[in-house]
Structures are given as structure tokens and as C-alpha cells.
Automatic annotation (TrEMBL):
Marked site (Lowers pKa of active site Tyr) residue numbers: K81
Database matches in Pfam families: Aldo_ket_red
Family statement drawn from the similarity comment of this UniProt entry: Belongs to the aldo/keto reductase family.
Enzyme class: oxidoreductase
Compositionally biased residues, Basic and acidic residues: 270-284
Protein name: Aldo/keto diketogulonate reductase
E.C. numbers: 1.1.1.274
Domain of life: Bacteria
Gene Ontology molecular function terms on file: 2,5-didehydrogluconate reductase activity
Binding annotation for substrate: H114
Residue ranges of the region described as Disordered: 265-284
Amino acid sequence: MTSSETQALPDRKANDGLILPAIGFGTYKLRGFEGSKAIESALDNGYRLLDSAVNYDNEGTVGAAVKNSGVAREDIIITSKLPGRYHNHDQAVETVEESLLRMDLDYIDLYLIHWPNPLEDQYVEAWETLLELKERGLLRHVGVSNFLPEHIDRLVKATNVTPAVNQIQLHPYWQQRELKAYDDEHGIITEAWSPLRRGGETVKDPAIVAVADKHGVTPTQVVLRWHVEYGDIPIPKSATPSRQLENLDVMGFAFDDEDRAAFAAMDSPDGSRGDFDPRSHQEM
Ligand SMILES: NC(=O)c1ccc[n+]([C@@H]2O[C@H](COP(=O)([O-])OP(=O)(O)OC[C@H]3O[C@@H](n4cnc5c(N)ncnc54)[C@H](OP(=O)(O)O)[C@@H]3O)[C@@H](O)[C@H]2O)c1
């Protein structure tokens, strides 16, 4: 591949003007001094979108990495998420304030409701509270995670405000075509969690290895390139600096129709990593 064949990674734009880079960085399980060093390395390696959550117990780790990195605060999009146990108004306010204190920040760029927990049925109140905190300037953009159209429709009906982002499990084995189409139709950026289906088996799948070998790249690179072409934002996690670089270097080759057909055939009703049906999954 010559450099003239390498395209730039595209940005994505949401209904509220939020602009995100095409690939972000997951931080689940990155904690403590070592975790902070790994996140600092990701920033040095070019990542500008960080994904954290109250339930990852690592907001302090993320805040320290941002401070210690050579990257300007305003150039980084920092994400956190509201857990199910704090959906009511007063607890949601305190939780966001605690996130700010733990990260040592004046504002958080993107705050998501982590799961709808519809059996508790308080996610509309949580959404109204995030909008209030946005008004106060503590949050720049707000969105959701693991929401289905029926949940998002209720938020919009109650507040007239559509989430900027919906972060869902999405990878070649679980492509979520209908949900992705709904997000697209409403100007909602779809972020993909476990975009590599947590590494492991994915990078050994013969169908993926065959596409990678054909292009002289790694299995992870073809999976992430598939995400970019599909139009979601993958947020791969890696504690390994060389993999962090590899995972951003995905635009130096192009798929042909045979590759696209191979990926389309991977989508499966059994492809989800675990039983995570948002209608019933309780995550507090
Ligand atoms: N909203 C939600 O409900 C939700 C749920 C789950 C996850 N998330 C978010 O999504 C992020 C990503 O998902 P994930 O952490 O579950 O899984 P993932 O990003 O799909 O996979 C991470 C695994 O892949 C390995 N890996 C990364 N790059 C690799 C490469 N180039 N070659 C080989 N292996 C590689 C990593 O190993 P090393 O680290 O050892 O390099 C790690 O074991 C999370 O960190 C979190 O921020 C959100």
C-alpha cells in the first residue's frame, strides 16, 4: 500500500453537533497506576475518545491519565456512564458530581445512561436529570447505552431531546442492523462496545484471518476497518501500546465485495457475547 492509498479516519457527527473520531478507546479493566499508564499511552498513540463508567471503578484512573498526558484537555472527549442504581434525580445529580470530583474535571464531554433497566422504570427521570446537568454546564453532551428504540422513543416523547449517542454491543457476529438503522435515522451515533467481541476467539476466526491475510494486515485491523465502513464507532480496549497503535491503523487497505460478503455472513442470532437483552438485563 502506498501512502496515497491510505485514507484518513472519518469523523462522525451527532444530531446535537457532537463530533467524534471514528475509533475510540475502551477502558474497562484498566485501573490503578498500570491502568493509568495504559490510558496515557493510548492518548500518546492518538486516541481522543475515552470510554469510562462509574461502574468501571476507574474514573480516577482516567482523570489522572488525562492530566499526565501531553494532550490538551479540550482535545479529548471523556465519556462516563450513570449506573442503574442511581437513576432517580437526586442520586443522579450526586453521581455526576462525584464523577467530576473523581476525574478532577470541570465538565464531562459525554455522559450516558449505562443501561435502561426497564424493570425499574426510572430511565426517563435519569434522562431528564442528565439534561438538567447539561443545562448547568457540567455535561457537554448526553446519550444512552444499551437502549432499544422503544426506550429512546420514550425519552424523546418526554423531553423532545434525542440522545447524541447510543453505545451498544456490536461486532461482526452481532451486527444489530435494525438498531443501527434506527440510530442513523435519528442522528444518533452508534458506538460499539466489545467491538472485537473481547479479542480472543475473534482474532483466531478463520474467516477473519483469511481476509486479514489477503490484505497483509492483522485480524483485529480488518474487524475495526469493518466497523469504520459499517459507520459505528468501535471503542477497542487494549492495555498493550503496540496493539493500541495497530488498532488505529486500519485505513491502509480496502475491502472488496468478497470481503464484504464474508463479513455479512458472520452476523448471527447467536452472536451476542452473553445474554444482554436490554428489555430484561438488570445492571445496577
Ligand atoms: N456500555 C456497556 O454496557 C459496555 C459493555 C462492555 C464494554 N464497554 C466498553 O467497551 C470497551 C471495549 O469492549 P471490551 O473491553 O469488552 O472488549 P474489546 O475491546 O472487544 O476487546 C478487548 C480485548 O481484546 C484484546 N485486544 C485488543 N486489541 C488487540 C489486538 N490488536 N490483537 C489482539 N488482541 C487485542 C485486549 O487485550 P489487551 O488489553 O491485553 O491488549 C482485550 O483482551 C470497554 O473497555 C468498555 O469501555 C461498554
